[in-house]
Design brief:
Length: 297
């Protein structure tokens, strides 16, 4: 993973990503591909262009502005990555797209959005410290999320070292799939709160629904709770038919009984990833719709 991460969102004044008033930084890039992901724009570590059908007036300005001819006009054929429907279909060749953002600038209707911005560590620190007074008065701080923030450990180390000089509370939200040794060496001393996702206990099902086995995740969780210095909160997104089954929740409960953690949260299922997939020209994972019992029986 690149040492210069892309950030797809910076939310100031958040009340939902930890205690108090926080700024949450969402990184692009994730080693998992959870089929229910509500932030599919976070998965790929490159700039992407999202197109929002409900805002497009089909003026074709984007077609004229693209230096790569990545956007074209086709009145006849239907295409999986089409812009709109019926006569006047726009085609978006995402392989040709370099992410330059010229079409986004050209669109007067906010129908296109560039997803993924580079911030130097110095620039990010400057933005994060703008709300220092709010963090201090509310017991808040900064939360690094994603995607998977811990694929960017060297970058985060630079940022967190400076934030800690100012006694800022720092939280991370992680999938648990990260290099523990690197985390321990560079980042762990700066982190106050870890929100650790534990999604599916069954190893095969974990692979089926996320694209990775859960061995590394369980290993990292075990190490974190045994060498504990941070507040450790384990969380499970409650996805119907996938994580929110009796079998899975019971298995998680049994497993966590043996660990020393500070809390457990069940997160409400958020289906917004489906519309985001469409805006990014991606297929909605078929597996999202399937009942796991029928697959593994
Ligand atoms: S410039 Fe914007 S509104 Fe016009 S066709 Fe392109 S996306 Fe649609
Ligand atoms: S981001 Fe640049 S290359 Fe991609 S479609 Fe827009 S103008 Fe073309």
């Amino acid at each position: 993973m690149s040492s210069i991460p892309l950030i797809f969102d910076l939310v100031r004044g958040s009340f939902v990503d930890g205690p108090g008033i926080r700024t949450t930084v969402f990184f692009k890039g994730c080693p998992l591909r959870c089929v229910w992901c509500h932030n599919p724009e976070s998965q790929i570590h490159r700039t992407e262009i999202a197109w929002y059908a409900d805002k497009c007036v089909k003026c074709n300005t984007c077609i004229r502005s693209c230096p790569e001819n990545a956007i074209s006009y086709n009145s006849e054929s239907l295409h999986p990555s089409l812009f709109g429907e019926g006569p006047g279909v726009r085609l978006f060749n995402r392989e040709k797209c370099t992410g330059c953002g010229k079409c986004v600038e050209a669109c007067s209707f906010n129908a296109l959005k560039q997803i993924g911005t580079v911030y130097s560590p110095e620039k990010l620190i400057e933005i994060l410290l703008r709300d220092k007074a709010f963090y201090e008065s509310s017991g808040g701080g900064i939360t690094f999320s994603g995607g998977e923030p811990l694929v960017h450990i060297p970058y985060l180390e630079k940022v967190c070292r400076e934030l800690k000089k100012q006694s800022i509370n720092i939280a991370v939200q992680t999938s648990g799939f990260f290099n523990y040794k690197l985390f321990e060496q560079l980042l762990k001393p700066y982190i106050d709160i870890i929100y650790f996702d534990l999604k599916v206990m069954n190893r095969k099902k974990h692979y089926f629904y996320t694209g990775q086995y859960n061995d590394l995740i369980l290993e990292n969780l075990y190490k974190l709770q045994s060498e504990k210095r941070q507040t450790l909160i384990v969380r499970t997104p409650m996805v119907p038919e996938i994580t929110a089954t009796e079998e899975n929740t019971e298995a998680i409960k049994l497993y966590l009984k043996r660990l020393h953690i500070d809390g457990y949260e069940m997160l409400a299922y958020n289906p917004s990833g489906i519309n985001k997939c469409l805006a990014l020209g991606r297929d909605i994972p078929e597996r999202h719709k399937l009942n796991v019992e029928t697959i593994f029986s």
